[in-house]
TrEMBL record:
PANTHER family documented for this protein: ACETYLTRANSFERASE (PTHR43420), ACETYLTRANSFERASE YPEA (PTHR43420:SF44)
Domain of life the protein comes from: Bacteria
Pfam families: Acetyltransf_1
Principal localisation: cytoplasm
Name of the protein this chain belongs to: [Ribosomal protein bS18]-alanine N-acetyltransferase
Domain N-acetyltransferase: 1-118
Keyword Acyltransferase belongs to the record: yes
Species of origin: Pseudonocardia eucalypti
GO CC terms of this entry: ribosome
């Protein structure tokens, strides 16, 4: 799956501790220039490595890639994920709307968020 996504222009980062995967993040290219749009598909950090700034660094790397494209960035985040909401809002995202029952199988709601395009 990752190879297929990379082949169509998606971008992934991995955080490693030696040979152990500590976290990863993925950015999808939704529309190319001149009006580039991207979407953060995932940022995940293994529980043993949470609260160490790895998620913030992964996000920074994904946003740097989006900035190289001067792309708007979209994402969805659980409405009850306060640490992630604080991180996203701290990095320039704004809430656009609510997607009810977005996450399966839990049925949890998600906020749709957007960060405007920035120049590299």
């Amino acid at each position: 799956m990752f190879r297929d996504e990379l082949a169509v222009g998606h971008f992934y980062l991995a955080a490693r501790d030696g040979t152990r995967l500590a976290g990863y993040g993925g950015l999808a290219l939704i529309a190319g220039p001149p009006h580039a749009e991207t979407e953060i598909h995932t940022i995940g950090v293994h529980p043993d490595y949470q609260r160490q700034g790895i998620g913030r660094r992964l996000l920074a790397g994904l946003l740097a890639r989006a900035d190289e494209l001067s792309a708007v960035v979209f994402l969805e985040v659980r409405t009850d994920n306060e640490p992630a909401l604080a991180l996203y809002e701290d990095t320039g995202f704004e809430r656009l709307g609510l997607r009810r029952n977005y996450y399966r199988p839990s049925g949890a709601d998600a906020f749709t968020m957007r960060r405007p395009a920035r120049q590299p």
